[in-house]
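hi! just following up on the protien thing from before. the input was this:
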Amino acid sequence: MAVHISQNENPQELYMLELQGTVTCSAGLFDDRVFGIIKFNAKGNPELSIGSRVLEGKSENLKQPIAVLEKTNHWSSYQGSADLQSREVSIKGIIKKRLIFSTRPRIMSEISGA
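and the predicted 3d structure came back as:
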């Protein structure tokens, strides 16, 4: 099977996350759920907030960018042949950096004024 790759005008810039440990979801799957919030601090380092925990990390450029592809339901003839079909795949984003979180999380708690 041949694959035809199409590119959006401006594919999203995505990040690869590298975490130490195991992440689980009480519902079993992360479908359409927010995993956490990533912010970059004043030094430009990423901070990942998951509930009341904050992980501090660092970012690294990848040696080779990675394309994130999505299958479509579109097929076309391969090189004009009626017998051979080519599935169309679109580029959803490009990963150029990875965010590495290798330290233990800080626990954030709200302290009310007394």
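Strands lie at 2-19, 37-40, 46-50, 53-56, 58-78, 81-101, 106-107.
The chain has a mean pLDDT of 83.
cheers
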